[in-house]
């Protein structure tokens, strides 16, 4: 399925004149890659600070940064989001170790916060683009909804009984919501967002989330100059938001195809090109994907070196977690060494 989706996406984008894409890449301003990568790495550091907050400081800054980079690297080159399990495996070998369930719960919170951040980003994009009033209002509503979503998560994390009451009320309207299975699922979700029970932790997590996404938008805006003479902030926000959504779409490792399509449609939606399949948008999407993958691979390899572990050892430990689905497993990884 992933190969088919990637082939369809690439076929749609490359169905037109490939010589135009080649010319755009030959004439690109490649100096923009340097500041883009620098800001992207800074954004990874900001995301590692968020992870530290969600882990309540159980990892040092260097470990959280490098382990996070390893997980992004593995997610970029392997399917099935194995990088998230690899992150938990690596955190469990640091001294003192971080419990596996603690790491996995922090990943749940990260995904929820990032999802809300993407909705906020889309809302802001729709609000500033020259679209109709109805679309602009929808964008503002999405942004406000994202803020409310964070508040609701924090309240339910601190008061889980309230969440069960809300579910009971919903069960009166939708009977399946009142079943025991729904309450068990809610308990699992509440356990995952437990780090948000602290107001201080929530504020810091939201702050680092916003800062990390802002860094991504700035990096995207800068590298837009590689192809476009007059890029826009709306184009950067649109392509980043859409590219974040397609992570869930089946594709070959690296999200080849859907990523390019999302970036191209984001650029077209912001008005930099007439159609997503135009040569400038396709060329830029290819360039951006290469830069992103290169950044993840480089920082991931540095992370593996710092943590003194090989890619094969990490992936085997992650696959062991996936197979066993147990709260504790024996990890066949070398012990931590001093750096």
The biggest sheet, with number of strands, parallel, antiparallel or mixed sense and barrel status, is: none
Task: Report, as a whole number of angstroms, the end-to-end distance.
Answer: 43 Å
Secondary structure class reads: mainly alpha
Q: What low-confidence regions span 5 or more consecutive residues with pLDDT below 50?
A: 326-339
How many individual β-strands? Answer: 0
Fraction of helical residues: over 70%
Strand residue percentage: under 5%
Categorize the overall geometry: globular
Could you tell me the radius of gyration in angstroms?
A: 21 Å
Number of separate domains: 1
Write structural notes for this entry.
The chain is mainly alpha-helical and 339 residues long. It has one domain (2-324). Helix content is 73%, strand content 0%. It is built from 14 helices and no strands. Helix 2 (18-26) crosses helix 13, helix 7 (133-158) crosses helix 8 and helix 12 (258-269) crosses helix 13. The protein is globular and about 60 Å long. The N and C termini lie far apart (43 Å).
